[in-house]
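Protein details
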Amino acid sequence: MEILKLILVAGVVVVASLCLAFRSQKKKSGGSKSVADPTIIISPDTVLVIKVPKDLEGEHFELLAAPVAAEQMFSALHGLLKFTPNVQEHITFEIGADREGLIFYCTIPHQLQSYVESQIYAQYPNAQINVSTDYIKYDEKLPVFNCISLKPSKPNYFPIRTFRDFEVDPLSALTSSIEEVSQKSRAFAQISVRPLADGWQAEGYRYVEMIKMGTKPVSLGLGDFLHDFVNEMGAVLGNIPKRMVYPGDAYVAQRTPQKPEPQRAAVLSEGQKKELEAIEAKLSKMGFETIVRIGVASTDEATASTHLKSLGAAFKQFGTSNLNSFRESGATSFEQFQNRDFVDDQSFILSTDELASIFHLPSASVETPSISWSLAKRGEPPINLPIENCTYMGKTTFRDRQVMFGIKNDTEKAEDRCRHTYLVGKTGTGKSTIFKNMIIQDMKNGFGVGVMDPHGELIDDILQNVPEERIDDVIVIDPSDFEFPVGLNLLECSDQAQKNLMASGLLSVFKKHFGFSWGPRLEYLLNNAILTLLEVPGTTMLGVVRILADDNYRKYILHKVHDPVMLDFWEKEFKGMKGNQSLISEALSPIQNKVGRFLSSSTIRNLLGQRTSTIDLRDIMDNKKILLMNLAKGKIGEDNSNLLGSMLVARLFFTVMQRVNVSWESRVPFYLYVDEFQNFASESFANILSEARKYRLALHLTHQYTAQIPEEMQMAVFGNVGTIIALTLGAQDAKILEPEFAPVFNENDLINLEAHHFYIKLIIDGMTSAPFSGVSLPPPSKEQAAGFKDRIIDLSRKKYSRPLAEIEEKIRTWIERPFDLGMAIAEEHREGSVVPKVEEADQKEPENQKGGVVGEKKKIEGEIRI
C-alpha cells in the first residue's frame, strides 16, 4: 500500500513538474502567436476573377508599382482583423492556369466581397473583377492531383526576399513556371491569409536584443526548444524540495538572483547588422497568418511530381542563406486545396511586403505571354445617367456594376434623341443588336419609327417583335416582294416652289453612285431633266431617260412646261449638244447607262414607275407610324439597294422639311434608323445631319469603319451627332476615334473591346457626357417575340401595294405610247373644255390615301396613268 502511495505521489510530482516547466518555458519564449487560434473557420464561397490592363506604354511604367499597390492592399485588408469574436475569416489569392491561359483569382467569404473588391479597386482602379465559378474541379482527363504546402525554413521573424530586393518583378518567374507546367498539366498557386494582431513580433525583438548584447539566442527552433524545456524541467524538479521547506514569498526572495553586472553591446559584423535590419523591418509591419500551397493536376504520377517540383523551384528565388527561404512542408489533400482550408499546422507569418512579393497583380514587366489581361478599360458612368423614361441602350460595366441606361425620351421635345446617335464597329460586334433593342422599345412606346436595312435580317427581327396594338401602323417597303410592289413616285411634287430642293436631293444621290463618270456637263444635263419633269404632274423616274432619248416625248413634256429657263435649255443648248459626239459621250451616254440600267430592273421599275405613290411619307411621320424598308442586297442587288436607299433617304428628308410651315411644337418626333448608312449617304447627307434636328427627325446611324465615308462626311458626323457609340474597331478607326474618347480611353482600348461591349458618349439634357463603358442588352428571345410577321406583311400588302400584273400592264402601255406635241395640245384642249372625266377602273385609290394629299389625283382624260 505504501508503494502505491509513493507511485501516486511521484506521478503527481512529474505531471506538475511538466506543467510548470512548459509554462515557464513558454513565458520565456513569448510564443509565436499572441492571439488564440479561431475555433470556427468560415468557408470561402465567392470566387473572383481579377484582370488588369497591360500597360503598353513602357515609358510610363514603374517596376515597383504593382507590388507596392499590393502591399497597400494587404495593409488595408488587415482591417478585417477581429478581436472579440472567435471567428476570423481568411482570404485566398490564387494563380491558376490551363490551356486557356493564366488567370488571377481571389476566393473570399461572401460577406466580405464588397469590402475586398473596394480595396482591390482602390489600388488597381482599372481592374476588372467578375464573379466566377470555382475553377478547381476534378478533371477526368487529369486524374492525378499532387499538392504540397510550403513553409519558411527558419522562425517567423526571419524575412524572405521582398520585391525591393529584385531587379525584375519576382512574379515573372512564378507565372513563367506555372505557364510552362500548364502546357501539359494544370498548375495552381494558392496563398491563404488572415490578419494577425500585434504581439507576434515579441520573439523577434527578443532575438534582435540578444544578438546585439552578444547573448546566445534561445528558442530559435524545435531542438533549442526541447533543450531549454529539459533544462527548465530539471530546474523545477530540483526546486521542489526548496518549495516544501520555504514559504512562498521566502522562496521567491531566496530564488531571486543577484542583479547581474550590465553587459556591453556586442560588436556586430556587417552581415549581422544587415540581418538585424531586415528582421526589424519585417517586425515593423503588419502580419498575416499565411498558408502557401502549390498543386498540379496531370495525367500520371510521374508527370505531376516532376511539374510540382518545377513549380516549387520558383519559390526558391525568395530565399537567402542568412535570412529565410521556403521549404516543402508536406503533402496536402485535394479537398484541403479545393476548399481552401486554413490548417494551423501549415500556417506561418508573413508581413505585408512579403505577401506582396509572392502575390500581386501583373504589370507590363511580367512578360509571360499567356496571362489573361483586361484588354480594354472600363469607364465610370456619369452621375446623372438616365435609368428611367428612356430608350435603353445597354448596361454599365464599370467595376462590374451593371445598371441599365439609355437615352432620354422626352415626348414633348425629344431634344436628346433629335441630336442623333452614331454607332461604329466591326461586323459582328453588336451594332444591330443595339439598334434592334432600341427599335422594339420605340415601337412599344408608340413612337414613329423608320428602319432602313441593307441586309434584311434586322427587318425580319423587327417584324417578329411588333406589338399587336401597332400592327395597323406598319408599312413595309420590300422591293423583293415582286408580286406586290408598293408605289413611290420620287417626282411627285405638290409645291412647285420646292422642286429645286427635290432635284438637288436626287442629283446628290446620282452623283454618289456615278463615280468617276460624273462631270459638270453631266450634272447640268441631269439636273435640267429632273427639274423639267418635276414641273409636269404625273411624271416618274422613267421619264428621265426617255426625255433625253425620245424627241417626241420631249416635245410632249415641254409643251406643259412654263419655266423659260428650262425651255431655253432644251430648245437651244440640248439641240446643239446632240450634234456634238464628244458631249454625248461625256454627258448623255453615262445618264442613259447608269439610270437606264437602274430602271431596267423590273423590281425597281415597278416601284418607282407608278404615277401615284401608295405611301404618304408625311402621314407616316406626323402620325407616328412604323416604316420598314427592306433593301436586302442579296435579293435586289447591291447597286439597286444602295441607289434606292439613297433616294428614299433624300425623299424622307425632303418630306420632313415640309414641316417648315408647321409650328415647332406641332412637329412630331420621328426616329429613323439607318443600318450601314454609308451605302445611302450622299453629299447632301451632311446637310441632313445639321438640319434634321430642327424638324424633329432623329437619325440613328451605324456602319463598320470610317473609311466607308469621305472625310467631309466624317467631320459632319462628329460635328453634329450628340451620342457616339464605338464598338470594337480596327487600328485605323481607333486612331480616328481616339480623340472623341480621350482621355478616358485610348486607341488600344478601342481595338481590344470585347464583342457587344462598347464605349459611349451620351447626350444627357443637351450636354454630352464623359465617355464610359457599357455592354449591349441581349435581344428578345424567340419566345418573347410577338410573332405577327406574316399578318403584318399581309395587311401592309392590302393597304399599300398593287398587284404585279396591273402595274406591269400600265408601265408597258406607257412605254409603247407614242407621245408627241399633237397629243399634248389635244390634252390641253380637252382639259379646258367641259367634258366628263373618264373614270378609270385601274386607278383605284389605296385605302390609306382616301381624302389625303396623295389621294387627290388629277385625272387627265385620254392619258394612261401609271
In short: The first strand starts at residue 46 and ends at 51. The CA atoms of residues 174 and 314 lie 5 Å apart.
